[in-house]
């Protein structure tokens, strides 16, 4: 197995097959300011320009050693294409949704014609094609996007979404189904463009916002529909302490589950998952990777591997001000672990 390509290693690890060593990558956002300056691909320009988008993503793979290329850098591409207003952020702040098309009810809600031609979707698909051409067939590409629960809350506003979950279940389920349909369409377009893995981040599905009962009874079936309808390996990332829903997440059909350090014990999480899904994570983005120092990052990375993490990765999106040397430290730690 010593001649495994990066793509073989990552896909095999996510599918629960034997690998020569744990892959190290990020399934969450990878844009950092140091690299924006290095290659001339700053935010917010590189959110919309396929060439800059690809350039920044490839830079993280080539200069940090992370073993996948992940695009894009936010959770607003599909939301914008479906009618949300988006603030494009700054050089060190990601885009965010600022207004919602259906904040009071779902009257007039319909799928945009030519959805894949709206907003920045073509920029992302173009970037994936550029990445594939430049890195070749053996480097895995991770297409990142907002999950169906988060998209549903963006379309309706978190306030209405939460209210409907308690008082208007028919609206709650209707917007979830609508969002799930759109996320599947967009995800499969990324796969067609060349993505090997689709990683959704669904922060609004977190127990911090939705009850475990809601997750089990309503959200889980939409996530299952997504994973079974997308033509690639899939990874589900949910922020926060997901221990109350980890068992339900494992039944959602995703090959990988990306988790933060807030879950606590990797060993215990692995016991809960069994052979239903693989664990991705969980080096803290804000408390370890951003501040360092390198020795702390290496210690935590080696411990995560020892405890059984299947893919060594940041626990959440990489903070834009994270130093490049701190990302390199994860890769060095993995290599030292197997030396």
What would your notes on this structure say?
There is one protein chain. By secondary structure, the chain is α/β, with parallel strands linked by helices. It has one domain (6-338): TIM Barrel (Alpha-Beta Barrel), CATH 3.20.20. 48% of the residues lie in helices and 12% in strands. A 7-stranded parallel sheet has the order 1-4-5-6-7-8-9, sandwiched between helices. The chain has a two-stranded antiparallel ribbon with strand order 2-3. Helix 4 crosses helix 6 (121-135), helix 6 packs parallel to helix 9 (169-193) and helix 9 (169-193) packs parallel to helix 10 (212-229). The radius of gyration is 19 Å and the shape is globular. The model has no long low-confidence stretch (mean pLDDT 97).
Task: Describe the protein's topology.
Layout: H1 6-14, H2 33-39, H3 45-48, H4 50-64, E1 69-71, H5 77-81, E2 85-87, E3 96-99, H6 121-135, E4 141-146, H7 148-156, H8 158-167, H9 169-193, E5 197-201, H10 212-229, E6 233-237, H11 246-250, E7 256-259, H12 266-273, E8 278-283, H13 285-289, H14 294-307, E9 311-314, H15 324-338
Parallel strand pairs: 1-4, 4-5, 5-6, 6-7, 7-8, 8-9
Antiparallel strand pairs: 2-3
Helix pairs in contact: 4-6, 6-9, 7-8, 7-9, 8-9, 9-10, 14-15
Describe the structure using short key phrases.
single chain; 339 residues; alpha/beta; TIM Barrel; seven-stranded parallel sheet; two-stranded antiparallel sheet; globular
Summarize the structure.
By secondary structure, the chain is an alpha/beta fold. The protein contains 15 helices and nine strands.
């Amino acid at each position: 197995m010593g001649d495994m390509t990066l793509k073989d290693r990552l896909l095999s690890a996510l599918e629960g097959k034997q690998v020569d060593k744990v892959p190290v990558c990020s399934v969450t956002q990878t844009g950092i300011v140091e690299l924006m300056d290095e290659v001339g691909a700053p935010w917010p320009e590189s959110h919309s320009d396929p060439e800059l988008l690809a350039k920044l993503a490839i830079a993280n793979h080539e200069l940090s050693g992370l073993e996948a290329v992940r695009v894009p850098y936010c959770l607003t591409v599909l939301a914008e294409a479906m009618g949300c207003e988006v603030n494009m952020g700054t050089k060190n702040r990601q885009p965010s949704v600022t207004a919602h098309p259906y904040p009071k009810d779902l009257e007039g809600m319909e799928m945009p014609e030519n959805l894949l031609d709206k907003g920045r979707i073509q920029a992302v698909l173009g970037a994936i094609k550029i990445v594939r051409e430049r890195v070749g067939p053996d480097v895995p590409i991770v297409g990142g996007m907002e999950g169906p629960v988060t998209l549903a809350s963006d379309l309706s506003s978190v306030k209405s979404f939460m209210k409907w979950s308690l008082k208007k279940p028919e609206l709650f389920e209707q917007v979830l189904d609508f969002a799930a349909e759109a996320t599947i369409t967009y995800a499969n377009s990324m796969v067609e463009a060349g993505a090997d893995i689709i990683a959704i981040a669904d922060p609004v599905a977190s127990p911090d916002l939705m009850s475990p009962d809601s997750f089990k009874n309503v959200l889980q079936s939409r996530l299952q529909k997504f994973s079974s309808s997308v033509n690639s390996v899939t990874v589900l990332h949910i922020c926060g302490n997901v221990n109350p829903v980890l068992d339900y997440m494992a039944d959602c059909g995703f090959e990988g589950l990306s988790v933060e350090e807030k879950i606590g014990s990797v060993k215990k999480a692995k016991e809960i998952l069994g052979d239903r899904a693989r664990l991705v994570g969980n080096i803290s983005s804000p408390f370890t990777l951003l501040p360092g120092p390198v020795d702390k990052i290496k210690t935590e990375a080696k411990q995560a591997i020892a405890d059984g993490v299947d893919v060594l990765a940041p626990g959440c999106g990489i903070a834009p001000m994270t130093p490049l040397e701190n990302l390199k430290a994860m890769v060095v730690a993995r290599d030292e672990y197997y030396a």
